[in-house]
Predict the structure.
Amino acid sequence: MSICGDEKRYRIQMIAEEIKRCRKCGLSETRTNVVPGEGNVDSPIVLIGEAPGYWEDRRGRPFVGAAGRLLDEVLKEIGLRRSEVFITNVLKCRPPGNRDPRSEEIKACTPFLDRQLEIIKPKFIVTLGRHSTSYIFSKMNLDFKGISRIHGRVYEARFTDWNCYVMPTYHPAAALYNVNLRGDILRDLRKLKIKMDLLKED
């Protein structure tokens, strides 16, 4: 059952309030701010990263540091603005030192992500990096073979009660250390935009 934009915004905000009170894992003891996610809840696209970094933890917003600027640039190059998509992460709190998420943290936090997706029901999910790809693939019974092997492919899958397309790509932070990956991310997102435009024509 579809719900209107106002109801979506209300429900997403209620989840954000729950996240602020969350004490399900040790990250609640070290965080400065929670980072529930932000953007257009009526968007057909949701981008999912790994976890907040330093600046995200400071500001309570996703992808606002150097990786976020790179992501904004790439989105602009394919004709999309940040305000047109919804952006969130697998974890809603920053792991100390930007270490990898731990399995118990992912288990504690992903019910929030699942509920966000079930409210928005995006037509396209872009997973940024191996942790978000691994999680979304597990939910959709897809085989994850490593981000370098599958990035840029568009998968048709089912998430609980609706069909959507999933496209993995590299995390923008990786492109800060390997400039060649920026081109990969751009090419991947261009493929996604082509798929979106084709579906609009049908």
Q: What stands out?
A: The longest strand covers residues 162-169. The chain has one domain: 5-201. The two ends are 23 Å apart (CA to CA). Residues 180-201 form the longest helix (22 residues).
